[in-house]
Amino acid sequence: MFSTNIGSTSEGATGYLRPETAQGIFANFHRYKERMTIPFGVAQIGRAFRNEISPRNFIFRAREFEQMEIEFFISPDTWPKYHNYWVEAFWEWFLHLGIREDMLAKDVHESKDLAHYAKACTDITFKYPFGTQELMGIAARGDYDLIRHEELTGKDMKASQRSQMTNKIRPHVIEPSVGLDRLFLALLVSAYHEETIAGEPRKVLRLSPSVAPITVGVFPLMVKNQRIRDIARNIRRDLSR
Description:
Elements (H helix, E strand, L loop, with lengths): L1 E5 L6 E5 L4 H6 L1 H4 L7 E10 L14 E11 L4 H19 L6 E5 L11 E9 L2 E12 L1 H10 L5 E2 L7 E2 L2 E8 H12 E6 L2 E6 L20 H15 L1
Antiparallel strand pairs: 1-2, 3-4, 4-10, 5-6, 6-7, 7-10, 8-9, 11-12
């Protein structure tokens, strides 16, 4: 964790900045399970901090970044199905955003490379200008986090299943995790194009309409001309249907 001093001097209390958003979801699981049944997910976006020794590659690797995570709680025997589901769902989402498919790839971790608690992990990678790197990871984390929270807090982390309301279990979790900064950089790289028009080279940013806050703007050239304003309103109305 990223430590810092709290107070006006270096002798103040030591505080720690969170390295991920996930643990807040696990710590509050005992509240979620009272209102929802398995399977269900909790999504969160927020700031995270890591003590990177060598921040580099523009916004790809930084000490402070925005992280988006989902903790999707499931029955233990369904983790392969839901792990595959989230890998494919995010792959399709990236394509929808306008990320080039020829620059994406899947990196399935071998068992020897998995974290000690993980049952599986698949990274979706992107071919950045500085090399192919992880864009996001989808991990099957088992029930390790809930077991540890249960041991340390004494709170019951078992939840009801939608199909068997009377049978409570400690769920497993699938965790899709993506850095917003890395995603933004991948969008810019995918949208960057060079072309030649009438012998003149130019650089073009071809962003997908799916990421545009405003898809179409209708601007009458002469605001005081009522006829043109009426035509503009009609065009806007037709486009809004």
